[in-house]
Amino acid sequence: MNSEWSFSQNDYGDFTYEGKVYHLTDMAEPTSRLMDSYPYHEAGDGDEYKFEMSAPAVDAYDNKFTVYWIFWAVKGEEKELDEYDYYEIDRIEQN
Question: Are 54 and 66 in contact (CB under 8 A)?
């Protein structure tokens, strides 16, 4: 699902997802989750694989959440992590 984002100086970003506003409190980092389909360890050079990123967030009431993204990459041709489309959020889980 697409999300709407806004940024200010020294800010990780505010976004609206499914009608609720969240504020990221740190940078997104790769998770260690082994993907069910197209996992990294089964990909050969030039093959596509999926990987997951996550970042902590809070809502307007200071409730804590984790935001998750799933991205596609090509083994051996990986992009920098800031080059991926973070507008496509996979899910948000309350902590």
Answer: yes
Cα–Cα distance, 50 to 88 (Å, whole number) = 14
Q: What is the pLDDT of residues 19-52, one digit of tens each?
A: 999 999 999 999 999 999 999 999 999 999 999 9
Per-domain residue ranges of the chain: 4-94
Which residues make Cβ contacts (< 8 Å) with residue 46, sequence separation at least 6? 74, 75, 76, 77
Tokens matching residue 27: 């940078």
HSE (CB half, 13 Å, CA atoms) of 66?
Answer: 10
Q: Which residues of 48-83 are buried (b: 16+ CB within 10 A; e: fewer)?
A: ebbbbbbbbbeeeeeeebebbbbbebeeeeeeeeee
